[in-house]
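Anyone opening a protein record will find just a pair of labelled lines. A complete record is shown below as an example:
=====
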Amino acid sequence: MSASTHSFFSLHHTFLAALSLLSLNAPSAMAAAPLGESTMCRALSAALPGRVAQPSSNSYLASLKSYFSLQEAEITPYCVVTPRTSQDVSTAIHILGAPNSTTKFAIRGGGHTVWAGSANIENGITIDMRAINAVTVSRDQTVTSVGAGALWKDVYLKLDSMGLATSGGRAAQVGVGGLTLGGGLSFFSARFGFVCDNVVNFEIVLASGEIVNANANINKDLWVALRGGSNNFGVVTRFDLRTFRQGPFYGGQVFYNISTVPQQLQAFSNFDRGEGYDENSSLIQSFAYTSGIGLAIQNSIKYTAPTAVERPATFQPFFDIQPQLGETMRVSNVTDFTTEQGAFSPDGFRQLYRTTTFQNSLPFLQKVYDLFAATVPAIQNIPDIQWALTFQPIVPAITSRSAPLGGNSLGLDPAAGPLVNCLLTGTWSRTSDDATATDTAKQLFTDIEAAARQQGLYNAYKYLNYADGSQDVINGYGTASKRALQHASHKYDPRGVFQTRVPGGFKLFP
């Protein structure tokens, strides 16, 4: 008997009582009936003693408070399951995914996705994975195994102390699970590809409750599907990440007066290129309106050469732009840089993300900035508003890394040339301002995408981790990728549990 089969059958005694409780509440053994939500929480409590938090309990409230956006924190599930092992997750999925259950549920890792219902659920049950957060480095230091509830800061604290790194998130407080399953951009992407490309193995609990591995040798189609396919196939409990030697490197932030927009866009357009791109470089360029401050520009610059190089030539055009308002450039480690990056996005506010992609064109970058600047009057009177437009290069140096590493589901073709990821973020305090912020963002991206199509620059890819719940991510992966994802769903989740019972995320079928 295989290890996974043994694990599958050894669960029997742990949830037998729970199944008995469920059957007692069904009209008959022959007729499946919807299960009452209080009954479902009791069944989970019986099978997982001490792992189910009820409303008003400290652990329930702590789970809600830990979400990044207030929109997610305000949602109140029937109860919160807090597994500590993969077996706990398997037990929970056996119960929640039972054929006679109609209960909907959500899965959360770090809880950083901003839109309401993405990783929490009203009128349902939330599985909070944060206690599954172990970080273990293999003896040969080539693979780091990370629990699905870990944050990137947990990973980097461990790896920095060993002179190692992995391709991971750029903000310390972001969760490993969601970012990796959505693709994942990294300081190291031009060297090693998307974060998902560096997963050598996923441990995942399927809708059947079975715990399996997915890698280049076992369940390979699932392995590729999970590289960008999000929460559509099961509950990932562990990520095994490719790991490499990495010392301190050069990076930080440079802040500029808004009068430098033309020079910034010129420098970005020249930087975002196919030929001659310096694979050690990482750039995030942001134009932000902040309440009480106005408009300013921020470039997040990282140069990850294994031996630190200060003021590398590839970034000299950005260093030359004046006037500058300040900078934090230094030689440091991943933990420090991701802590700094994360500090620009504090918890405890209402949040908005929206994204699109287009081909690199200097005139079009100027057009997008002008459209963004035109939205400022609509939002500038919102208290505590921070409203930022961000450009990031998606160059062939990144997209060409996937195929040699086994492939992913993102559908990005290196032949498309240098692309621009365009992101809008919004942060504010009052619920009463939600409609203004949301409607303004939606109209801005309608205008950007209409202009991109008109000029032949539009690319359908939408980076899942930046997408709003109303955006069409899966179709943006392309027909072939979508078809492969749907095939994997039918194969590994034949009853469609993660399509119909887990409403959060981006689903594979209409």
